Structure formats: structure tokens, C-alpha cells
Amino acid sequence: MVKEKEIPAVVLKEVSKAFQQRNGRLLPVLTDVNLQIAHGEFVTLLGPSGCGKSTLLRLLAGLDTPTAGEISVFGSPVRGPHPERGLVFQDPTLFPWLTVSQNVALGPTARGLGVRREEVLQFLERVGLADFASAFPHQLSGGMAQRAALARVLINHPRVLLLDEPFGALDAFTRMDMQNLLRSLVAGEEITTVLVTHDVDEALFLSDRIVVLTPRPGRIRAIMPVSLPHPRDRSAPAFLKLRGELLRLFAQAQEAGREGKAGRLTNAAG
Amino acid sequence: MLAALGEGWPLFWKHTSVTLYESLLGFVLAVVLALALALTMDALPLVRQALYPLLVTTQTVPIISVAPLFLIWFGYGLLPKVLVVVLVCFFPVAVSLLESLAAVDPELIDLLRSMGASRMAQLRLVKLPAALPGLFSGLKIAATYSIMGAVIGEWLGAQAGLGYYMTLSQRSFATPRVFAVIVIITVLSLALFKVIELAEYFAMPWQRLRSEE
Q: What is the pLDDT of residues B127-140, one digit of tens each?
């Protein structure tokens, strides 16, 4: 018998996605994406805008279906959204008519389940928002709103966390703060995380592996493992060395996209 | 004019209550109809595509030309007036709700879908609250139209109501009484508008807090 831990958490097999354009032609957004993500792994999809990384995340969430290929999560194919795959957007997307604690309780409420007040408070505490339970979203700063969004997704006990540039709209210091918070939230938990970003430092600080994508259409250009121990020092020589390497890969990917001859998969996942 | 209002107060009050009753009844009916139609059209894109042009067409037909038909079909009673009110109030409510339901941030809906929310839950948790401001602007327009609708209905044929009393006063050249009726109509319309504003205030506490800051 195969133990559950030995099944990869996420498997993408030859996944392609194309969108129908107004003139009827298909616009390829993602081509031949092959990737396996292990249980509890933190993988970052890194690429310039237009490389289809957000589309890939939507496919994983089950909000869109791939044009070709297969996606499975914990051994079963993805057929539509499921609360075990939690989603966080760049915009906190809090509901303005709900208080912070009502926002956090949204998942259970939406599924018609009751949620205990203590549980909501416990999750608010974990993201450092316990004092703002009865505030309305417009009273929060950008960083606080994104904290609430994290608590809102974690209360559903997701096994896979899908983050679409969650800190992209925050200032540099708040962003680092949030990266530390995210790290503390997923470390030690059985959560597999897929982060989409174009921030090289963010990718290096958080990931076990970084997948570099080429733009238009998105393909995997390279996969870089990051084995630095946590907590990572953003200014350590080893970190900066990897950073240089990653920037080079990033530049190559952009170049490949510009020339329109996207590079082949250079590194098998696993 | 004030003297006329003071002297004939019981009579004014009698006609006012008739008009108010017609307006409120028509308004409520129009709102119920508009809600049902807008929600159906939003849920079923085919129905929306089929009915939207029709909905707009009904508004291009001048009320003044349809109202006499109502009179022929339904007589001098309550029904034709209520129908005129429904006809003028229905459109702003339906269109404003429909447009604001369609304009709800798709990310909010995606988020709820990712949490396993059913379509009913999506409607209740996102679409309706997000559409409330739009709905209320439609309701405010409809509220001010409703009294006018009833008065038009009464002009064309009635045994009571402000419109009826107005034509009667005009024919006997009782100008002060005509002005008094105009003032009453204005005050009623304003009052209805204020009632909707008050309902809006209580229905959307999050908006209230924002404007207080």
C-alpha cells in the first residue's frame, strides 16, 4: 500500500491552457507544464507578467479548466474548486459589508456550517489581528487586510495553499513582515504551498523550489531548488549567490519569451 | 393657498390617502416584480439576453398613451392607477439591480467558489450585498416616480385622489387649491424618498461607518 505522504500533493501533466480571443483565434497562455509538488513543499512560480503563472494557479484552484493535460491533487483529478485548496489574491478581497471576524468565518458560513467564535478569534490571533475582530475592512491597512485574508483561508484547514502575488501591493517593509508571517504559518503545518510572484527575494526567502516560467506562452524554463535553512537571512552570502543565479535564469526566461522560442523544460520535477 | 389648504383639509386628506395608497401598493408590487425579474435574468444569461431589449422597449412607450387603455380595460377603480405606478417604478429598480448584480467583483465570487460555496450562497453572501447600493439608487428614483404615476392615472379618470381633485379644481379655476395639491405631491414624493434613504442607512451599516470617518 502506498502511504499518502508518498503520493505527490500536486501533479501537473502536460498542462496547457489557451484562451479564445475575440477574433476566434486561440491565444496560448500555458504550454506543456509538467510539475510535481511534494507533500508540505513550498513551491514558487516565478516569472514576468504575462507568463501565465496566475492562470496556472486558477487551474490548480479549479476555477478554470486546462485546454489539455491533467491536474491532480492528492491523487484525484481536479474538477472544480474545493475548500481543501485555499486561494489568496493580490487584492485582499475582503467583503466590505462584513466585519473582520465575519470575513474570516466566510468559508464555513458559505458551506452552511457553523463556526465557533473562539475558533475565529484563534485564527485572528495567529495573524495578529485579535484586536480588530469587529472592525470593518476599510478600517484596516493593506497589510492588515491581507492578514485577515490569510486567516480567512486558513480557517478552512486547506491542504494546499494557492497564493497569487499576495504581497504584491504592499510596501517593502510590510511585505517582509508578511513573508515572515506566512513562513511561520505554514512551517510545521501539513500545508503544501504554491506561491505566484515576480519578486525574486520573496521567492528565495520562502521556497523549497522555484519554478521559472517564460512569458507568452508560459513554459517551465528552469527549476531551482533552494536548500538554505530557515529562517533565511536575506543578506547572507549564500542567499545573495542564489539570488544572482535566479536573476540570471529570470533574465534568460524573459529573453526566451521575447524571442518567441521558449526554452525546453530543463529540469524534471521531483 | 395655505388658506385653501387649511379650509379644505379633510377633503385634501381624503384624496391624499387615496393617492398614497395607490402609490405604495404600486411601488411595492413594482419592487417585488423587479426583484424577481432581475434575479432570474442574472441567474440565467439566456433569459437576460431575451428579455433585456423587451424591458427597455416597455419604457419607450409613453405612459400617457397607455394609461387610457388601462382605463378602458380595467375601469375607474384602483387597478389602472396601480398599474401605471407599477409601470413607471418597475424599470428603474429592475435595471439598477440587474446592472449592479452584473458588476459584482468577479474575484469575490471566485473566492467564494474556491471555498465551496453553492450558487445560492454566492448570491446571498456576495451578489445581493454588493448590489445593495445600486438597488437603493433604483428604489429612490422609483419612489419619486410612484406618486407622479398615481396622479397621472387619476388625471385620466378617477373618483378620488390628488390627480382627480387637481383636475376638478382646475376646471373650477380654483388656482390656490391646484397649488396646494402640487405642494402635497411634492411633499409626499420627498417623504417617500427620505424613507428609502432611511432604509438604505439601516441596510448598509458598513457604508454608514465609512462616511462617518
A: 999 999 999 999 99
Chain A: residue whose CA lies nearest to B123: A110
For residues B17 and B154, the answer to whether their CB atoms sit within 8 Å is no
Interface of B with A in 78-117 (CB under 8 A): 105, 107-108, 110-117
d(CA A257, CA A223): 16
**Grid-cell match 450562497, residue found:** B121
CA dihedral of residues B17, B20, B25, B27 (deg, nearest 10): 180
- In terms of CATH, what superfamily is A1-84+166-178+190-270? P-loop containing nucleotide triphosphate hydrolases (3.40.50.300)
Q: Give the H or E element holding residue A198.
A: none
The amino acid sitting at B106 is P
pLDDT of residue B210: 61
Going from the first residue of chain A to its last (270 residues), give the mean pLDDT of each consecutive group of 10, the final group possibly shorter: 68 90 86 91 88 90 92 90 91 91 90 84 89 90 91 91 92 91 84 92 93 87 88 90 92 76 40
CB-neighbour burial class of residue A79 (10 A; exposed 0-12, middle 13-18, buried 19+): exposed
Which DSSP helix (H) or strand (E) runs through A171? none
Decide if A113 touches B, using CB distance below 8 A. Answer: no
Q: What structural domains and CATH numbers belong to chain B?
A: 2-208 (1.10.3720.10)
pTM, two decimals, is 0.79
